[in-house]
Amino acid sequence: MLVAGLDVGSLTIKAVVLEDNTIKDFTIIPTGAEINKLTKDCLELTLKKTGDYFKDLKIIVATGYGRISIPFADKSITEITCHALGANWLNPDTRTVIDIGGQDSKVISVDKEGRVVDFVMNDKCAAGTGRFLEVMAQALGVKTEDLGKESLKSRRKINISSMCTVFAESEVISLIAEGCAKEDILRGLHEAIANRIGSMANRLRLENTITLTGGVAKNTGMVQALKKRLKAKVYVPPEPQIVGALGAALAAQKMAGNNI
Questions:
Q1: Looking at the structure, do residues 248 and 222 belong to the same domain, yes or no?
Q2: What gap in Å lies between CA 204 and CA 233, rounded to an integer?
Q3: In terms of domains, do 99 and 35 share one?
Q4: What is the number of other CB atoms lying within 10 angstroms of the CB of residue 156?
Q5: For residue 22, what are the domain limits?
Q6: Are residues 29 and 42 in contact, defined by beta-carbon separation less than 8 angstroms?
Q7: pLDDT tens track of the chain, all 260 residues?
Q8: Is the domain of 125 the same as that of 231?
Q9: DSSP string, 192-224
Q10: CA distances from 237 to 88, 98, 120, 181, 214 (A)
Q11: Does residue 184 share a domain with residue 143?
Q12: DSSP β-ladder status, 105-110 and 75-76
């Protein structure tokens, strides 16, 4: 049985095509103004790779902040539920999911079935999100994909006092003017985000195994900072950006009556 999960995020759109509990393929594209069209394009690109057709899909489930803008989806589900399902499927030992997305961050407690037990979420500002890191990368003149490896070169600890994107950017510019090394500033930024996530996690009963999802999970410096702050092992899926879309596809599979 062929199903699809879509994660319509603030920075990227993800599509996963699932058949009989197996990921056939996936696609990640940038989000734009025409969300409905871009999401359909993303799904059709994935189907082209799998050799399937839109009409072959039994159920399509959408998640993410733009989920309600997808008229061709059969159902929409919150990203919290979908990240829990996806993380549990990838690593059944998962009991805590930390999702650092483009515009928000979440810490989710899950049970052994991947059901949400409790969660905390930061969606009031860009602090500790992918967008926050994008702004800091621009201020430092560093490519977003290079933030992690550059921060790991740091030899000096620098504390970043503000997590407000505007104030933090000003602080970063001041540190550059003072002659601070970019790698040290990046380390400080990653540690500041890790502290913020740690504070969120402290509001829940943090349990191993911790699975990190979202695009920021590709940032090795961020992963190291979180491991240090949480004093725990952190599992990063092979493609952490598709976990929400995978969870949506798994939900679609259950709706279709596939009990695999």
A1: no
A2: 17
A3: no
A4: 11
A5: 1-91+241-260
A6: yes
A7: 999 999 999 899 999 999 999 999 999 999 999 999 999 999 999 999 999 999 999 999 999 999 998 999 999 999 999 999 999 999 999 999 999 988 889 999 999 999 999 999 986 677 778 889 999 999 999 999 999 999 999 999 999 988 888 889 999 999 999 999 999 999 999 999 999 999 999 899 888 889 999 999 999 999 999 999 999 889 999 999 999 999 999 999 999 875 44
A8: yes
A9: HHHHHHHHHHTTS---SPEEEESGGGG-HHHHH
A10: 11, 12, 21, 31, 10
A11: yes
A12: unpaired
Q: Which of 30, 32, 49 is nearest to 4 (CA)?
A: 49
Q: How far is CA 238 from CA 130, 213, 214, 221, in A?
A: 18, 10, 11, 17
- Residue 110 CA from chain centroid, whole number: 16
Determine the Cα–Cα distance for residues 160 and 1; give it in Å rounded to an integer: 50
Q: Is 9 exposed, middle or buried (0-12, 13-18, 19+ CB in 10 A)?
A: buried
Looking at the structure of the chain, the number of domains it has is 2
